[in-house]
Structures are given as structure tokens and as C-alpha cells.
Amino acid sequence: MVPHPGRKPKEGIYLSEMRRICLNLPETEERFNHGMSGFAIKNRSAFVFLRESRKENHVALWFKASSGVQEELVEQDPDRFFAPPYLGPAGWVGMRLDIDLDWEEVTEAMEQAWRLVAPKKAIKEFEDATY
């Protein structure tokens, strides 16, 4: 894949692993939107973004979440989880990747976010291949 214009150096450390995880989910494609690398269902909404904050000097995963998840995660660990700007009011969660990075936890968050926007056919395909 050709590097996106404006890609920040720290972001690249995490992007290859995110690609490995997300692009294995059926009907998923990578997009570059509002200066962020993201992953979405083809012809549908995005479910995850990778965002580097120069101001706060960290890289974070922003992911779509079910109702109540954002509040629960932020309350449990406010140093790692936050309500991202713009998407936070819609229930999205920000997860800092520079604190206690656990790729299994990241994978689970991305898969759950994907399930919120994926068509039933894609979910069945994923489950049939996984289980």
C-alpha cells in the first residue's frame, strides 16, 4: 500500500499490525479520512481509526462501541481510555496505544467494532472461518 500523505511517523509503528487484524475481517477496506488511517466495511461506515495526537504526544485507536462501553472503560482506566473528539458523543472510545499495549485487547476491540457495522453475511463468514 502506498503511504498516505501526512502520515505521522509514530502511527506507522501500529498501522501494520492494525492492517493485519482489520483486513482479515470480511468486507473490510482501509481508508484515509480527516487525516487518519481508518478501516471500514466496503460501502458502509468506518469502525476504527488510528490517530496520532501531536498536542498530547500519543497514538490512539478510536473505535465504535456498543452503548455504555465508553463510559465503563473510561471509568475503569481513564489514563488509557477516553471519549475522542467529534466521535465521542456517538459512543466511540479512544484507547491509547502507548500505555499497557495488549494486541489481544486491541484485536477484540476492533472485532467488536467491526461487528457493529458489518452485514450479517460477513459476520457469518467470519464466524464460520474462526470457529
Number of domains: 1
**What would the average pLDDT be, to the nearest integer?**
88
Number of helices: 4
CATH class: Alpha Beta
Number of strands: 6
Task: Detail the topology: elements first, then pairings.
Elements: H1 9-22, E1 28-33, E2 36-41, E3 46-53, E4 58-63, H2 69-76, E5 81-82, E6 93-96, H3 103-117, H4 120-130
Antiparallel strand pairs: 1-2, 2-3, 3-4, 4-6, 5-6
Structural commentary:
With about 130 residues, the protein is an alpha+beta fold. It has helices at about 10-20, 70-75, 105-115, 120-130; strands at about 30-35, 35-40, 45-55, 60-65, 80, 95. It has a six-stranded antiparallel β-sheet. The N and C termini lie far apart (about 30 Å). The relative contact order is 0.18.
Structural features:
alpha+beta, Aspartate Aminotransferase, domain 1, 37% helix
Tell me briefly what this model is.
With 131 residues, the protein is of the alpha+beta class. Helix content is 37%, strand content 24%.
